[in-house]
Structure formats: C-alpha cells, structure tokens
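Narrative of activities, Objective 1.

The group set out to show that a structural description can be obtained from nothing but a protein's sequence at a throughput compatible with the screening campaign. Below is one input-output pair from the validation batch, recorded exactly as produced.
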Amino acid sequence: MYQYHLFPMFFIFVLISFAALIDDMTLKVFGRNKRSKALFLGFATLITAIVVEDFAWFVNRWLVPLESDPKGGQLMQYSDWTSKHIGAINAGNFVIPVWYLFAIGLASIAYYAAFRRHDKWDYE
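Output recorded for this entry:
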C-alpha cells in the first residue's frame, strides 16, 4: 500500500487545524456583509485541494513506485479510476482526467467570484 497520505494529508491537517484562524482572517477581510465571498473562497479551495490531493497520489506512484504495483512508475493512465468515469485527454505518456479540467474551471470561477472587486470591500 502506498503511504502517499503522510505528506499531502499533513497540509490538509494544517488547514483544518487553522480553520478558525483562516475563517477569522477571511471574515475580517470581507467584512460582515461579504460572507458570500468567503463561501466562494471555501468552495474554490476545497475543489483545488481535491484536485491537488488526487494528482499528488499519482505523482507519488510515479516517483516512488511499489514493486508489487503493475502501474508503478507511471502517471495517470486510461485504466485508472480517476480517468474511467468522465474520460481523459491523452498527453503522451500519461492522461489528464477530464474532471480535472471541470474542477479547475469551477475553482477558477469561484476564486473570481471571491476576489472580484476586492478593492471595494468594506472593512467592518
């Protein structure tokens, strides 16, 4: 079994541990009337974290393969679970799952919604 979760999950644990601090800082930046921007920011960050964690698993399989893994030393392939449902785009020796593109697009829209007109926020 891959021990990929030790390092990527550390960052997730840090985010969870400091969630109250991040929330307080976010609400002070946005002001009380701009909590929807904090919601968009949380949504975008969650999507980004899911994509990064998934990609990190495959990078770990590529860089530090197990001897018992028949796909060890390879990045994502068409036969991997992350590429099966919606499909993937061929990028040479590996594939890019289509859901990555959708997720990055949604996260970009959410980040835009969270940070647009940031110079006009009220600091209550």
